[in-house]
Each structure stands twice: as C-alpha cells, then as structure tokens.
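Message: Study each token:
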Amino acid sequence: MLIPNQIKSLRQYFYPCLGGILGGISVSNHFWLIFMPISLFILWEGNERKIANFWWGFFFVLISHSWLYDLHPLTWLGFSWFASLIIAISILLFCAFCGGLLVYFWGLLVEMILWKEDVFKMKIMPLTIKVFFLSLTWGIGELILSQTPFFWIGLGESLVPGDIYLAGLARFIGASGLCVLQILIGFWIFYSHGRWKRKLPFKKIFIFGLLIIVFLHLFGALKNPIKRNSEFPVAIWQTNIPTREKLKIDDEFIKEKQSIAQEYALANQAKLLVAPEGTFSNNLYLSKGIKINTLAGGFRNYDNELRSSLLGFQIGDKSFTSFIDKNRLVPLGEKIPRFLNSFSRGLSAVGGIQPGSDSRFFDPKFTPPLAVAICYEISDGVKIRKAINSGAKLIITAANLDPYPIKLYDQFLSLARLRSIENKKDNLLVSNTGPSGLVQDDGKIIQMLNLNVEQNKIVFPNFSSEKTFFTKFGDKPILFLFIIFMGLNIFWKIN
C-alpha cells in the first residue's frame, strides 16, 4: 500500500506528464479548446518543481512529434530492420529530451522571477509585469526555434483548427503572439484556481479574464473579406508516388503521368499546372515540350551540388527556365553528415542535397509573384512574410510528406492555414500524398483533395496585394514588448 508521501511523489510526476501529453495531443488538433488550457494550467501549477517542467516538455514533444517514429522502416535505404527501429526511436526521444530541457530552462527563469514569494498574495502590477515577461520569453523562444533547421510545432500553431477565431489575431501578432496569449490564458486559469483553492477573492479576476478572452475572439473573428474571382484557374496534380517507390520509377513513367495531368489542365482551361516537391528527377528533359505553364518540384545540379527546387516551365520549354531552391533542409533527412555515406544513403533517398537562397520570393514571370515554401519551410513565418513584403501575391506550398501519418498532414495543414491568416493570402498546397488543395486568406479551407490517391483538380486562388499589420511589422511589436517588460521587471526588482 502506498503511503501519503509516495502518493504525493507519484502525483508530482504524473500531472506534468499528463499535462505534456494533453498539450501534445492538442497541437493542430480539434481538442485544443479542452486539452490545451488544461495542459498549460498544469504547466503553471507544477512550475516550481524543476523536474515537472522537464517532463511536461518531454511528453509535449514526444506526443506532438510522434510521427517521427514513422521514419521506420528504413530498410529501403540500406539499414537493417533493427537499426532502422533504433534510429527512428532515438530521433524521437532526442527531440523529446530537447523539448524537456527547453521547458526546464524556462522553468528556472520562472523560479528566479516568480516563485521567490507567494504569487497569490502579490500586488497585481508587479505580478502582471513578471507574468507578461515570462510569457513573452516563451514566445520569443518559439520564434527562435522556428528559424532553426528543426521542424518545431509549438503553441503558436496549435490554435488551428481548434480555435480559428482566436487564431484570427495572427493578422496582428503572428504565431509568436498567439503563443504568448496561450501562456497567459494558462496562467489566468492557474491563478483563478489557486485563489479559489486558498479561499481568496477570485471572481473579479475570473470574470475579467473571461471577458477579455471573449473580446479577443470577437476581434479575431472580424475580417474584411477580399472579393474572390475565377480569373486564374490552376490545376494541381497530387502524384501519390510513395517515397519508398520513387527509386524504382523511371523518367518515362513520370513523363507519361505529367502528360495526363497536363491534358487535364488544358481541358479545363487552366493557366498553370503545379506538381509537388520531388516530382521530377535531376534535370529531367521533356522532349515534347511543355504545353502549359508549369511549376513542379524537382531536382537540379548547381556547381556540383544537388538542389531540391520548385522548377518553372513556360509553354514550349523542354527543361526548366526558372527555379527557386529549397533553403531549409531536414537534418539527416536531406542534409547528411559525411560519415553516414560510408554505409548507406543516410536517411535521404537522394543521398543529400544543399540549400539554396534563404529568400522565398519567386517571380517565374508567367504568374504574379509568389511566396514559396518547399515542405516544412511552411513553419517559418518570417521568410514567408518577407517574400510577401517583396511583392508576392500568393503562397504556394509544395511538399512530400510520405511516409508520415495523417497526424503530420494535419499539423502541416495547420501551419499552412496560419501562414494564410498572418498575411491574408491564399495558400495553394500541392503535396505528393496530401494535403493538396486551396486555403483561403482567412485560413478557411476552400477545397482539399483526398489523401493518398492520385488526383488532378482545378482551383481558383486569389492573387492579392493586401498586407496585414503582421505582414508589415512582423514580430517587432512582440520583441518591443519583451524589451519593455524586461526593463520593467528589472526596475521593479531594484525598487
């Protein structure tokens, strides 16, 4: 039988683990309204215990990034079944461990700033300054992570599709601001509950917070619709060629499929055909020439280096005449350490590629200027925003998410929808096995193809020059607030 101290000890481990699991489940999931607030409440509730912070972060990443396990099996790349299993599990556990460390360090900052006195007896002004600073610190942290090679899916992206109205605030504050907002909501629940539990006055705080949340939802839901048109029909080609089978497929097969997709596009008066990442092999040559302006994912050689690119073909072209290279490469998956080449291809079907320019602005001349995200570049809102400020009028996202499960497809779609909300731009998605379709400038899905089937479809994207507050100013307001609250926190501490 467990004695009270043992039960208390178990709870100290159980609740943070549960909180991380609930947070991980709610990332890009319909359960956000229930799970994420509970998760963040648990995070604040156990934050004075360092180990609790680690386990919350560990399980948050373990669940939200569990699709990494689906790298297994890698036998088609030369690994044994057992080695493949160890690699997939190790990558997932390593990412979860890093997530745990990040939240652990944030918890240390919370301990230094907040837990030196009884939070529930602090005056509102110093408490507000401290909590805002800590929340902004988390938001800045997620912004920094979004600039690294790692595919970070954090709190900022978790609002879509769970709370699309609150996510509407991304037009003003971006993903980083949404992240800060969620941390603050978690603290409001924790603080209201703590005061109620200690029989301290809490009703005014609870009602005031509730009214603010309602107002933010109403504000986020407000929008100025752009008049849609059907002047530029685009054909999207979801190829549905699994990555594990690509090595067995020759160029003639791809040319035949491309010809079918091209005829479909012409029959439906499309002005453009778009194909997903990695569709064309290295410097594919089309002897018959292109019959419709085309953007297709493929590979090209440059200075003895292999690049993954979105290639532009004008009518009559037999090889590409414009391109934009992929800049953000997957560690191990695309950019491979040299020592792995000694016994396999690494984790890449092409043996490793090199990054191109970090600009995501692409003007192929036969379409209005575009902001292009190739695969998980869609998680980098900074570069997409810069491309739109440079004149891009539509976001195009070309990807290949095979062999990952539907969970990653949903997360990827959430990222794409958030980029549309931030910049008020349609987002045209074309992926190998899905998701493929069109996302409206307010993040709502206009049309989405079925997953894991080859399909051609005509969509009508809007090309818009309109810019949001976020497009114009980006994360500068969040950074400015961070500096202000950091200064206020130091000033309050001195006095």
Observations:
- The mean pLDDT is 87.
- The first strand starts at residue 234 and ends at 238.
